[in-house]
Amino acid sequence: xxxxxxxxxxxxxxxxxxxxxxxxxxxxxxxxxxxxxxxxxxxxxxxxxxxxxxxxxxxxxxxxxxxxxxxxxxxxxxxxxxxxxxxxxxxxxxxxxxxxxxxxxxxxxxxxxxxxxxxxxxxxxxxxxxxxxxxxxxxxxxxxxxxxxxxxxxxxxxxxxxxxxxx
Length: 167
Fold this sequence. Notes:
The protein is mostly helical and 167 residues long. The protein has helices at 7-61, 64-90, 95-102, 115-124, 127-136; strands spanning 113-114, 143-148, 157-162. A 3-stranded antiparallel β-sheet has the order 1-2-3. Helix 2 (64-90) crosses helix 4 (115-124) and helix 2 (64-90) packs across helix 5. The longest helix has 55 residues, at 7-61.
């Protein structure tokens, strides 16, 4: 025996199946749209944060004052360690004579060196740096004063700077 469905049973059964599959399909599409939207928003937020972080780092590392002072420090360090100090120890015969040579300069330091002298020493080795530094600093009014420190090694010194720069 086959069961015969009435019109109302056919109508309700088919409608409920269609409605439930339509609802599940709609929910699946809604979930996909929600997931895609969520991923898009997170991507935009992360990308924005990355841009802000890079901009802050760019400003910090491209500060002209820091760059100029670092370049002047590098030039002065190279001047003392690789140019001036070897000429001083060339005059010393042993460690005692090096101490005798350097001790009188501990308090007053060596002669003040202008930025112009630093940029011109050793056949203008820092000519490329000079153009950048001269944009911000007066080469005749910016000075470095080097003081030797005991035990008078190549790296035993300190430097005072007098800047005449517009940043």
